[in-house]
Amino acid sequence: AKAAGRNTVGFFDPQLQAAVTDKAALEADLRLALEQDELFLVYQTQHDAQTALTGVEALARWKHPQRGMVSPAAFIPLAEETGLILELGRQVLLQACSLLATWQDHSATQHLTMAVNVSVRQFKHPGFVQQIQETLALTGAKPSQLKLELTESLLADDIELIIHKMEALQAFGVSFSLDDFGTGYSSLSYLKRLPLDQLKIDQSFVRDVLTDPNDAVIARTIIGLGQSLGLNVIAEGVENDEQRAFLAQHGCAAYQGYLFGRPIPAEQLVQFLSLPAAA
Ligand code: C2E
Ligand code: CA
Ligand code: CA
Ligand code: CA
């Protein structure tokens, strides 16, 4: 019965078959999208404890010519699986740094940071440090304004190599945030060895922070941990002022979420920052 069941699932389940075909099609489309520059970035603002603007996070978007907007939750894991994340990551970095380069000549923007998400596979690639340095040199963006968001899963193995790479980039002026903190299983003993600047409380803990005592404890623990380690702690997914106030009351130093703004395209961000239009 078991074998038959497996057979059914493997070869005759039309839904699964469709999913497999769909995935292959999506992969082919993503490959094409990367060739034809269909991917672009949107930017979400980040704020300090006084809610002043401190920077933005760049988030990838893909507008498929037929399917319309494809969620990063679908195309980022696919890109990681297929290795396309290397090209995707290269394009993201180039776009983000090109915009960042326009910020340094204006007093209103020269202290803002640009946070860029880096996938595990991308960070582990041997050419990553050089790619960062080259992209900064090519665009003229300042390393001190670039923040890389890494996830805990990066710390699963090769920890010495990871630390070595992070230190090389830190020496170059780049800073680091640990994204989705609390969702993985990073060993706390690693935490103090990593040249981190920031911990990011995952939005899954922020969402119900006012109603779920477990989430409240986790959020407060992360804030306390960050304080003990001398790290800035940012909460993501902050949607209302009650959440912000609760986190502030417990010492959270930075915020990001719909309360402050949704991710917006570059043109809108340029307007918002009152920068002169790009030449
Ligand atoms: P993430 O890095 O944890 O990004 C936060 C996600 O939460 C974003 O989803 C953002 O749009 C969403 N968000 C922001 N504020 C709120 C809020 O107040 N409420 C709610 N409910 N959601 C909020 P998005 O843009 O769909 O990205 C999903 C994930 O895809 C990201 O999670 C990140 O892991 C990945 N991703 C996006 N862009 C890139 C990229 O350029 N490179 C890599 N490697 N991953 C990326
Ligand atoms: Ca992120
Ligand atoms: Ca996150
Ligand atoms: Ca919960």
Automatic annotation (TrEMBL):
Residues covered by the EAL domain: 23-277
Superkingdom as given in the UniProt entry: Bacteria
Listed name of the protein: Diguanylate cyclase (GGDEF)-like protein/PAS domain S-box-containing protein
Organism: Rhodoferax ferrireducens
Upper lineage: Bacteria, Pseudomonadati, Pseudomonadota, Betaproteobacteria, Burkholderiales
Residues of the full protein shown: 600 to 878 of 880
